[in-house]
Specification:
The complex is a heterodimer of chains A (185) and B (287).
Chain A (H helix, E strand, L loop, with lengths): L13 H4 L1 H14 L1 H4 L8 H13 L1 H19 L5 H16 L10 H23 L9 H37 L7
Helix pairs in contact in A: 2-4, 2-5, 4-5, 4-6, 4-7, 4-8, 5-6, 6-7, 7-8
Chain B lengths: L3 H24 L3 H78 L5 E9 L7 E4 L12 E4 L2 E9 L4 E5 L6 E6 L5 E6 L5 E7 L9 E4 L11 E10 L5 E7 L9 E5 L23
Antiparallel strand pairs in B: 1-2, 1-12, 2-5, 3-4, 3-12, 4-5, 6-7, 6-9, 7-8, 8-11, 9-10, 10-11
Classes of the chains: A mainly alpha (185), B alpha+beta (287).
């Protein structure tokens, strides 16, 4: 049996589909609770952290699935054109995979690094996509860019840095649960 | 495990799928699916927002309650301060007409120098009619200096310490002020009475006294400068000896409500003690 392709009971790719409820809940929390705890314009990006963590844990195939599902749900919840966030998540998660590949769930060093760099790249890429789509018109000069960096990117970066390890650890248990135990005969 | 090519292919397909979704979404082709998905998302968002709002509302209420308590305490302190300030301002407002009157009096009498003093005490025995003022010899006051208000003569200083002085009012029964009727120029003496009124005595029979005539200090005797208003005649009659006339005089000064007075500091009372010593006459024994 290939990793990530089915459960111990056989055939059902549970590791892929448990992402749907997880991401569904994450999108709800992201759009209702996180705005309450936001500092300046920045708040934790749960969907991004979950997708990134699963990509680091489960690899490209499931990671891309989670990225598309999470992105689409977030787009629908926030009203941005469907596929916008999904595209940014796919690109960032894909880059993570091609640069680092899957990492062990006990690794506590790489996830924060990936979270920081991934947040910068993710928000930057998402901003470019939204600007191209005409949905982001605030970045009209250096002052606006500075404002975005200090009031949105920096707080989000700090939030994500704080939350990446708990999320990575919790998803690590979920990842282990979805994988069959190796049995030696 | 997938090969490198297939992984890139999968990634490319995913990116392409996203781009297609964006295009379709912008074109409105995904509206039915988006609408369908937005129903449960919207429902759960509403439920979650309700809970979130209640929790944040509760937290805000607690925070507001604490800030309101603090604000309430601050406002109470401010209210006390303002009430105190209002009382002070009312006092100042009440003092203003008096001070304005005194200022006018000073302006109308530029020859003399005045020192304003606040009345800080009154005679408590009821036998004397005196007041205590908050100025003393340290401020340049001396015994004998006249005390006035803009309404007329108040009295004279009869005792002074470094920090305060006592003033004998003209209404005191021991007070004696040489005065003059302003119209007829008839002279007499203003004395206090036990009832607190003023009486002008020793007015010659030849003088015509009119009710309402003003009475001013005559300056005779050197105890008071001349021309200070004492009061107005209310009625007149012959005195008990039938040798002089006397008149009831009503002062415009309310001696029971004096608060601020002026001391004429440039006036030096005449020392008449020299005249008490008999002048030696040459050739007369025993002198």
């Amino acid at each position: 049996m290939r990793q990530g392709q089915g459960s111990a009971t056989g055939g059902v790719p549970i590791g892929r589909y448990i992402g749907i409820p997880i991401l569904f809940v994450a999108v709800i929390i992201q759009s209702t609770i996180m705005p309450v705890v936001q500092v300046a314009g920045g708040k934790p990006d749960l969907v991004f952290l979950i997708v990134l963590s699963w990509m680091m844990l489960a690899g490209l195939e499931e990671g891309l699935f989670w990225a598309i599902v999470g992105g689409v749900l977030q787009d629908i919840a926030t009203g941005t054109p469907t596929g916008t966030t999904a595209l940014a998540l796919v690109v960032v998660a894909g880059l993570e995979h091609f640069i680092l590949g899957p990492i062990g769930r006990d690794n506590l060093v790489l996830p924060p690094v990936v979270a920081v760099l991934g947040t910068i790249f993710y928000l930057g890429f998402l901003g470019i996509v939204l600007a191209v789509l005409g949905r982001l018109s605030v970045l009209t000069g250096p002052a606006d860019i500075g404002y975005v960096l200090t009031t949105i990117l920096l707080p989000t970066l700090i939030f994500n840095l704080i939350l990446i390890l708990p999320i990575f650890r919790v998803l690590g248990f979920a990842f282990a649960w979805t994988r069959p135990r190796r049995v030696s005969l | 495990m997938r090969s490198g090519t297939s992984r890139f292919l999968l990634f490319g397909i995913s990116v392409f799928l996203c781009l297609v979704m964006i295009g379709a979404s912008l074109a409105g082709l995904l509206s039915p699916i988006e609408g369908l998905l937005s129903i449960p998302i919207g429902f759960l968002q509403g439920a979650s927002s309700g809970v979130t709002n209640r929790v944040t509302g509760l937290v805000n209420n607690i925070s507001d309650y604490q800030s309101l308590q603090q604000r309430n305490a601050e406002l109470e302190r401010a209210l006390i301060a303002f009430q105190s300030e209002i009382v002070q301002l009312r006092e100042i407002k009440a003092d203003y007409p008096r001070l304005a009157g005194l200022l006018n009096y000073k302006t109308d009498n530029p020859d003399a120098q005045y020192l304003a003093a606040t009345v800080i005490g009154r005679d408590t025995t009821g036998l004397l009619r005196t007041i205590t003022i908050d100025r003393g010899t340290r401020d340049g006051l001396a015994v004998g200096m006249p005390v006035v208000t803009e309404l007329g003569l108040v009295g004279r200083i009869y005792r002074a310490t470094a920090t305060d002085a006592q003033v004998q009012l003209v209404t005191d029964i021991n007070s004696y002020v040489n005065a003059r009727l302003q119209t007829s120029r008839g002279e007499g003496s203003i004395v206090g009475t036990p009832s607190g009124d003023l009486r002008m005595t020793f007015i010659p029979l030849s003088e015509e006294i009119k009710d309402g005539d003003s009475v001013v200090t005559s300056g005779i005797g050197g105890k008071f400068p001349r021309g200070i208003v004492i009061g107005q005649v209310t009625n007149s009659r012959l005195d008990d000896t039938k040798l002089f006339q006397e008149a009831q005089v009503r002062s415009l000064v309310d001696f029971n409500r004096l608060e601020i007075v002026l001391v004429i500091t440039t006036f030096q009372p005449l020392d008449l003690s020299a005249f008490a010593t008999p002048t030696p006459v040459p050739g007369v024994p025993g002198q």
